[in-house]
Amino acid sequence: MVDSDKTMDQKIPILEVRDIKVDRGTRNLLDVPHLSIDQGEVLSLIGPNGAGKTTLLVTLCHLFKYFSGTIVFKGKQVGNELPVSQYRRKVAMVFQEPLLFNATVFENVAAGLRFRKLERQEVKRSVKESLERFGIGHLSDRSARTLSGGEAQRTSLARAFAVRPDMLFLDEPFSALDPPTRESLIEDLERILEDSGTTAIFATHDRIEALRLSDRIAVMNQGRILQIGAPDDVMNHPADEFVASFVGVETILKGKVTGKKMGIATVSVSGREVAVIGDYGIGENLILCIRPENVTLSINPSATLTSARNTFPGTIGRIVPMGLFHKVELDCGFPLVAYITQDAVDALSLCEGSDVAASLKATAIHVVKK
């Protein structure tokens, strides 16, 4: 018997791919067994250069001729139940480098609409609306060749949104921009995606961009998706050592379980005992992932008045300015990294060579089994 209420609640993904592979000679550039995107969702693909992010986007746009696997759009298989030409009209892609014609901003934004053979008044109205959305209405008659990098990328985004795509693919659209321009454009895109409810897949190597824009994050490397999930889950519960290193886990330690009691395991790391949460077997090898924002410093190495189960005396090796905070690299018998503010550096009179106590809760340590 079918549960009708459950059936009604089930959503058909706007896009679903199965067994997508891209090979070039003996090299496998992409291998994605399954991926689905819900209507209105923003999914970020993060990973190092060469991870396969662009290859996946271009494949999903059906711009690669040579790939194997199935792309299903709104329940219809692309290339079978839905012609590729029709599918391409329903999606839009924005590349890292704006690909603009040698024409005015207006003509560039109107290009996709003209390809779809819309009425002249509809083209004019849609272009004006999209230009205003991205704050470049005053550039309408300007030649695209005279635009700054930020203006050119705004034009490229305006062109993509003008056709009201069912899905938008974004390939590192901010990477070539200076920080103030990038911040302004990210803020506008964040608002426009939310207001329009546009489904988007966004490739970036910047995890901060991904955190701001995404409902889910997928970490890629060597053409494969290593982990996918909510931003908080991926950032704080990485699936393996590679994912941990890429999502900002500054301290990754290897140790062996030497004891356990009431759900707390003792792990030996370079002769120091580290308490972690979990039921692990004696002698089991573990990888401990510690985010720097979860480490607290004090100037009394023998301090014991703390709710943290782990407190280690250490010596500061380096203090690295990182803009709004400082990265403090410690030697606690094992390397440990903490993030603290400039106010904290001043208040504790910290400097290289200072002796400190580093504290962290057992619950703040994410454990990966080796």
Explain what the structure shows:
This protein folds into 2 domains: 11-245, Rossmann fold; 251-369, RNA polymerase II/Efflux pump adaptor protein, barrel-sandwich hybrid domain (OB fold (Dihydrolipoamide Acetyltransferase, E2P)), CATH 2.40.50.100. The protein has helices spanning 4-9, 53-60, 84-89, 105-115, 120-133, 149-162, 179-196, 207-213, 231-236, 241-246, 342-348, and strands at 15-24, 27-37, 42-46, 68-73, 76-77, 91-94, 167-171, 199-204, 216-221, 224-229, 251-261, 264-269, 272-277, 285-290, 296-298, 310-321, 326-331, 335-340, 355-360, 365-369. β11 and β12 (264-269) form a beta hairpin. With 370 residues, the chain is α+β, with helices and mostly antiparallel strands. The protein is built from 11 helices and 20 strands.
Short account of what is shown:
With about 375 residues, the protein is an alpha+beta fold. The protein contains eleven helices and 20 strands. It has a six-stranded mixed beta sheet with strand order 6-7-8-3-9-10, sandwiched between helices. Strands 13-12-11-14-20 form a five-stranded antiparallel beta sheet. A five-stranded antiparallel beta sheet has the order 15-19-16-17-18.
Core attributes:
11 helices; 370 residues; 5-stranded antiparallel sheet; OB fold (Dihydrolipoamide Acetyltransferase, E2P); 2 domains; single chain; 35% strand
Chain-wise SSE layout:
Elements (H helix, E strand, L loop, with lengths): L3 H6 L5 E10 L2 E11 L4 E5 L6 H8 L7 E6 L2 E2 L6 H6 L1 E4 L10 H11 L4 H14 L15 H14 L4 E5 L7 H18 L2 E6 L2 H7 L2 E6 L2 E6 L1 H6 L4 H6 L4 E11 L2 E6 L2 E6 L7 E6 L5 E3 L11 E12 L4 E6 L3 E6 L1 H7 L6 E6 L4 E5 L1
Parallel strand pairs: 3-8, 3-9, 6-7, 7-8
Antiparallel strand pairs: 1-2, 1-4, 4-5, 9-10, 11-12, 11-14, 12-13, 14-20, 15-19, 16-17, 16-19, 17-18
